[in-house]
Request: fold
Amino acid sequence: MSGPGPDADVLVLGGGAAGLSLAQQLTATTDVRVLVVEPPDGPVRPPVRTWCFWDDGDGGLDDVVSASWPRLRVHGGDGSAHTVDPAPLRYRMLRSTRFEEYVHARLAERPGCGVLRATAGAVRDTPGGAEVDCTTPDGGPLTVRARLVFDSRPLGALPPARTRLLQHFRGWFVRTARPRFDPGVADLMDFRVPQPAHGLAFGYVLPLAPDHALVEYTEFSRAPLTTPAYEKALDRYCHDVLGLGPFTVEAAEQGVVPMTDARFPVRVGPAVYRIGTAGGATRPSTGYTFAAAQRQSRAVAASLAAGRPHVPPPHGRRALAMDAVMLRALDTGRLDGPAFFTNLFAHTPAERLLRFLDGATSLREEWAIGLRGPVGPMLRTALELPFLPRRSHPASRSGDRLP
Reply:
C-alpha cells in the first residue's frame, strides 16, 4: 500500500471505541474510503472491553447493544437508595467484540474500505495528506498514505495538568445460584463499600439476567490497585453488600481511565487529528468516553460529507471548567465524593442530570444544579485553580468503561 496516490481518504489508527465509532459513522453517511489500522492478535491488542453510555435510541446502535436499563440507582453510604427514570434516555452497554464485528462488516461492504492488521508507528505530514509507518504481523515494514489521519492510540504521556486522578476498576461477570438481580435497574454507584483514605470507591452493577450481572469495584484515586486487592474488594462487595450467596465468576475485566484537567490538542498536523481519550474525549468528572466519541464522530462525518474536514472539541469549555473544579475539590479532600454524587441523583431530575453529565445543559440549569452542591468548597477551589501550575503525569491505558 505504498503507490503514488493515497491508499485511503481517511486512515483511522486504532480499533477501540473512538476508532470504530468514527469508521461506523463514515461508512454510514459518507462515500469516503476508510481504512482502519488495528494491531494483530497479541499483547499489543486490547482485551475485550465493556463500553457504556446513555442515549434516547437514535444513535443507530440498536443492533449491537448487548443490554440496556430504563432505570438507574445510586446507593448512599448510609444505605439509602435513589432510583431514577431518565426517560427518554436509557443506559446501554456494548461489548467491544460485537461492535468490532459490526463495524468490520460495514467496512467490508464498502469498496475501498477495510481493516489492516498492522502495528502503526510514526505519522508524518506529506503534501496533500499524511503517511504512517506500519509493521505487518510478520515484521515487515509498510507505509500507508491517506488524505486525513485520525489517531486514537493511547498517548505515551498525558499533557500537563493541575489535577490528575484515575478511575480504575475490576469487574466480574457473575452467575448466581438463585435470582439476585433486577434486570430493569442498573446500579451506577453504590457507596456501601469502605472508602479509601484518598478519593472515593463504589460498586457498579449491570444486571444481564436475574442470575447474571457485571459487578465492578471502582475507585477514583491517584493510583490503581493490585489485582489481588481488586479481587478482595469485589469478593467483599458481592458477599457482604449484595448478599449474592453462591456464585461463579465467568469472566473478568479491568481498566484504568484518566480523569484530568489537561488540555488535549485535537489537531496535531495539517491532516492529522487525535480522537478518543488521546483527543480529550474522556469526560474528566466521570471517565465516560463512548458517548463523546459518538458525538464527535457524527460531527466529523458531517463535515467530511460537506467537504470541509473539521474535528470539534469533544467537550465544551464550560463543562471542562466545572470538571476541573470538581476534580481539584475531590483531590484535595474538600469534596465528600459519595455525598456529592448521591446528592446529585437524589435532588436533580434524572434526564437533566444525565444531560448535565454529558455537558448538554444550559447555564441556567447548571447554576441550579451547582447550588445544590457544597458551594463554599467549590468556590474556594474555583478561585485557586488559575494560580496552580500544570505538571506532567504518566499516561494510563483507558479501560473505556464507562463510557
Remarks:
- The chain has nine helices and 20 strands.
- The radius of gyration is 21 Å.
- The first helix runs from residue 17 to 29.
- The chain has three domains: 8-68+90-159+261-305, 161-259, 317-392.
